[in-house]
Structure formats: C-alpha cells, structure tokens
Design brief:
123 residues, mainly beta, 3% helix, globular
Length: 123
C-alpha cells in the first residue's frame, strides 16, 4: 500500500528525457502557487531514477483550486555549464496550469530534450 490515498486529490509529475529515451533522474522540480503576479513557493524536489517524484507535490487540504506553476530545471539536468561558453537553449521550463477540483488527481508530465519539450494532462 502506498503512503497516500490513491483516490484523494493530488498533484504528480514525471519527466522523460526524449533524447535518451529514458526517465530524467535527479532533475530539480519546483512548485509555486500563482497569486496575481506573484509566485508563492510551495515545494522543491528532485525526480527519482524513474523520473518521478517519490511523493505527490500536493495532497489533501493543499490541493486548492487555483493557478500553479511547475519549474523544471532542465539546463542543469542536461549538464549545461556556463564554462562551455554557451547559454543553454532550454534552462528552466515553466508550466503554468490550473486546478479546478482539489479532489481530483492532476498529473503534469514533461517530455524534454535539449532543444524542445511538450506536456499534457496525464492520468
């Protein structure tokens, strides 16, 4: 049995490195609540070896309707370093999304390569 109720509202993510065809392990993910023009930090974590976070990013009473933003630190993941003399094409990928129902599972995956990305509402 997992440490959280599978039927309760929660926010999860995972990251797939489409350039290598593998999960993006140890990629930093930050979660913010959007309040007007301000971002309120809520959670920061890293993906595990399967490209997923070990625990949901939001659960229970924290799953409030509103606007949120995930920031995926893909520049660090792909090993982009200023010492190479080049700025990374993708550094931090922001995904802003809305939660309407705090009792629902929201899954926001990221498929990423050094020069492009996509996302969708998963299940």
């Amino acid at each position: 049995m997992s440490s959280h109720d599978e039927t309760a509202g929660r926010l999860t993510t995972h990251v797939l490195d489409t350039a290598s065809g593998r999960p993006a392990a140890r990629l930093r993910v930050d979660l913010f609540r959007v309040e007007g023009d301000r971002l309120m930090p809520l959670h920061s974590t890293r993906t595990n070896d399967d490209g997923r976070c070990n625990d949901p990013l939001l659960t229970g009473a924290d799953m409030r309707p509103g606007a949120y933003e995930l920031r995926f630190h893909v520049g660090d993941y792909f090993g982009n370093q200023p010492s190479k003399g080049q700025a990374p094409f993708l550094d931090v990928v922001p995904i802003r999304f809305g939660i309407d129902d705090g009792n629902t599972h929201y899954h926001v995956p990221l498929l990423v390569a050094p020069f492009g990305y996509s996302t969708y509402r998963g299940s």
